[in-house]
Amino acid sequence: MTEEPVKILVVDDLPEKLLVYETILGGLGPTLVTARSGEEALRAVLRDDFAVILLDVQMPGGMSGLEAAALIRGRRRSAHTPIIFLTAFGADEVRAAEGYAQGAVDYISTPVVPEILRAKVRVFVDLYRMTQQVKRQAEERVALAEERAKRAAAEEATRRSAFLAEVSRALADSLDPDTTARTLARQAVPFLADLAGVTLAGPPGTPWRTELAWAGPDGTAAGRRVTAADAPRDALRDAVDRALARGTVEPLSDVDVAAPDGGPRVRSALVLPLAARGRTLGALTLAFGPARAHGPGDLALAEELASRAGIALDNARLYKEVQTADRQKNDFLSMLAHELRNPLAPIRNASEVLRMAGGDEPRVVWAREIISRQLGHLVRLVDDLLDVSRITQGKIRLRPERVDLAAVAAEAVEASRPLIDARRHRLDVDLPGEPVEVVGDPTRLAQVLANLLNNAAKYTDEGGHVRLAVAAEGGAAVARVRDTGIGISAEELPRVFDLFAQLDTALDRSQGGLGIGLTLVRRLVELHGGRVEVASEGPGRGSEFTVRVPLAEPAAARA
To answer: Among 3.40.50.2300, 3.40.1050.10, 3.30.70.100, 2.30.40.10, what is the CATH number of 7-135?
Structure first.
């Protein structure tokens, strides 16, 4: 801190006296500031601080020295500045009393004795310097204390941020509610509490369960699970029940609760609800022993932790619900496909008997063709359902072999030709002159391309154009199916491969199906290590599906 210069103010209306004072006091070191009236003196006092003020009592034509002294004393900053009155009339008792009443510390008669003036001024200058030094030291100590407090606050904020980040990472590692609760309890000790508990709220009428954790003797977290039947009825359990029922923060003080299995004895606690989307999913208990208590900063950190934990528990709960729903859906699809398949064989046998029995009556021929055609359609639907169920449950097994994708495409065209011809489409097939070999299940790859060709035929108005092209591009075997059909909007493109998804633009001209064909295509291609993409310029402008599967190693490389 830079030391400010010491200043002395001399106030006298006579220039020659001011010159004398400058001569006498010039060797003391302080800066001498002069004023020729009380008004100038007041302006100087407003501008600077002074070690001492030498003030002439008698200044004709304006403000007197006594009046100026009173105004100087009335200003807070200069209220304690020493004032020495200079007078040519002697310090009689009446005038001295009046001067001391206005804040004077001394009188000096003029003409002054230089040694006396210098001695008295030096005393106040030295006193001012000592006062300033003490003030500077005090300010330095305050600044140092503030800096230490800021540094400590920043370090604490960093520690808290790191703690929250670490807990968030740990909570994100699992989507199981019980594991999430156990992780949260063990992460909270000993950083945030001596004992932590995470209580999960079950369905109405079911007992809750709590994951407890506390710091062991070696500093690592120990813990156990406690159910409602194991926990005694005490103040801590009552607070947990209130937090679960009301969704409110429940502080506890002056309690004495014994933790199980040698855990710390609880003297105070904080119970916070774990909530997400307006629903209380559980409660977080932070308990403290006799040597520890929580403050406002701990409460804010605990609330932030509870908020993040509530979201993590909600994610785990939703994931579990989705898993359950997905498993139920797969079980239903599998059961439905098997149940539907049972009557198919008798129906097919009956249809074949009718065909073999002959009969050229038009109505019989018409009925026989309808039964045969719809039976084939139903068989395809049931097969697709079974395939989706097997793939979802991981039960489908590929029989990979080295196969030419062009030959697979020819088989797919043969399978799809009846539907394409029935709708009077023009089919262009572009196959390469060289083999495009992949390692895959030829039956499943043919099923992929046949599904795409059938999809193009169904959703293209009669007399349309369908094109199939196979080529080798950048280390991959590529098959493209392009049509001039109804097209796909930008909003519907991301969901065309979803299970049971059908395009809204096709509802008025649906060709049947459950919306699982493209799902099968994507999953079968992925099982072959490839990917399938779709592109469309919009409704009414057709669409293009592109299948990419890794090329097989060249024969020379295998050798």
So the answer is: 3.40.50.2300
Q: How far apart are CA 479 and CA 544, in angstroms?
A: 10
Using alpha carbons only, how large is the chain's radius of gyration in Å? 47
d(CA 313, CA 147): 41
Distance, in Å, from the CA atom of 552 to the CA atom of 554, rounded to the nearest integer, reads 6
For the entire predicted model, the pTM comes to 0.48
- φ and ψ at residue 19, rounded to 5 degrees: -65, -40
Specify the DSSP element, H or E, that contains 175: none
Coil/strand/helix, residue 49 = coil
Q: So where are the chain's domains?
A: 7-135, 173-318, 343-392, 401-558
Residue 188: its H or E element: helix 177-188
CATH of domain 401-558: 3.30.565.10
Q: Could you tell me which of 240, 289, 237, 230 has the C-alpha nearest to residue 265? A: 289
pLDDT (tens digit, 9 = 90+) per residue, 491-535?
Answer: 888 888 876 555 554 444 445 444 567 888 888 899 899 999 999
DSSP bridge pairs for 223 = 213
CA 343 to chain centroid, in Å, comes to 55
- Torsional class of 211: left (φ above 0), alpha (ψ -120 to 50), beta (otherwise): beta
Q: What is the number of H-type helices and E-type strands within the chain? A: 14, 18
Tell me the CATH number for domain 173-318.
3.30.450.40
Taking only the tens place, the pLDDT of each residue in 206-225 is 556 788 888 776 666 667 77
- pLDDT one-digit tens code per residue, 422-465: 889 999 999 998 899 999 988 889 889 988 998 899 889 999 99
Provide the pLDDT for residue 556. Answer: 54
On average, the pLDDT of the chain sits at 81
